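Minimal example, chain plus 3,4-dihydroxyphenylalanine.
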Amino acid sequence: MIDTIKQYLQEVEGFTSTSKEEIETFRIKYLGKKGLLNEFFAEFKNVPAAQKKEFGQVINELKKAATEKVDALQEALKDQNNLTGKYDDLTKPGEPVEIGARHPISIVKNQIIDIFSRIGFNVSEGPEIEDDWHNFTALNLPEYHPARDMQDTFFIQTDPDILLRTHTSSVQVRYMEKHKPPIRTISPGRVYRNEAISARSHCFFHQVEGLYVDKNVSFADLKQTLQYFTTEMFGKSKIRLRPSYFPFTEPSAEVDVYWGLETETDYRMTKGTGWLEIMGCGMVDPNVLQNCGIDSEVYSGFAFGMGIDRIALLLHQIPDIRLLSENDVRFLEQFKSSI
Ligand code: DAH
C-alpha cells in the first residue's frame, strides 16, 4: 500500500499542465471528496499499528504535494490569462488617454509671466489672508482714507486687522520689505472683494501686480514696459495712459490699448471707441517706498496691476465671468489645445 502511495507521489510531482480542465481533473482525482487522498485517509484505520506512522507520513506528504501542485498550476494559469488579456494583439490601437486642459486663468497667467520674465521680472507671491498693514496702510491708505471705499473688503470677523486681500498690491509691500533694489517682480494671485456677483464681476478674481524699483526709474520706463507687454500679449502696440488716482502711486494712470474697430465684436467690446482699459499703473509713491524701508531719495519705481480674468474673457470671448469658477467640464475642455 505504502509503495502504491509513493508511486502516486511520483506521479503528482511529475504532473504538469496548462489546461484548466486537466488541472481540475487532477485536483478531483487526488483532492476531491471521493478522491484518492480521502480513500487513503479512510484506509488508515485498517493499517496495522506497526505501519501507521509511516503510512501517515506518506499520505500527508502526498496531500501536501498534490495541494501545492494544484495551487502552483492554477497560479501559473492566472498569470498566463492576464498576459494574453493584455498582449494578445499588439497591433490593436492603444486605449485613448484623457488629456486634461489648463484653466483659461492659468493660460493667461502663464502668458503674462512668460512675457515679463523675458525682460528680467521674477515671480513672487504673497498670502491671500492679509493684514491691514500690507493691504492698506503701507500702501498709503490710512485707516480713514476715503479710497478704502473703492475696495469693499471681506474681513475675518474675529479680527478687524485680518482680511482677504483686495488686490495683489499687498505683495509689493511684502516684497520690498524683504528685498533691496534693484527689484523687478510680478505677483500673480487671487483677490477678494465684497461685490455682487454678475456676468461681469465676481467676489473673487485674479490679478497680476508688477513692480520695478531701482535708481533713476522714470515714467518713460513704465510706458515702454507696458507697450512691450501689450504688443507681446495682444499684438497691439498703440496704448494711451489716462491720468487717474491710486493712493500708492503718484502720478497714476489707467492704461488703454487700442483694439481697433474692425469687427462687430471690436465695437461691442470697446463700446464703439476702439479703446480697451486693461490696467492701472503709476510711479510708486515715495511714502510707500519709505514704509517698506527703501530710501525714496535714492530709489524710484513704477508699479502696475491688471485683472487676469478680464483679459481671459477678452482673449477667449467668454461671455460670463462665472464660467471661470463653475468647473463645468464642457467649458473647460475647450481649452485643451492651449499651452
Ligand atoms: N491695486 C489696484 C486695483 O486693485 C490696481 C493697481 C493700480 C495696481 C495701480 C498698481 C498700480 O500697482 O500702480 O485696482
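Residues 49-87 form the longest helix (39 residues). The chain has a mean pLDDT of 91.
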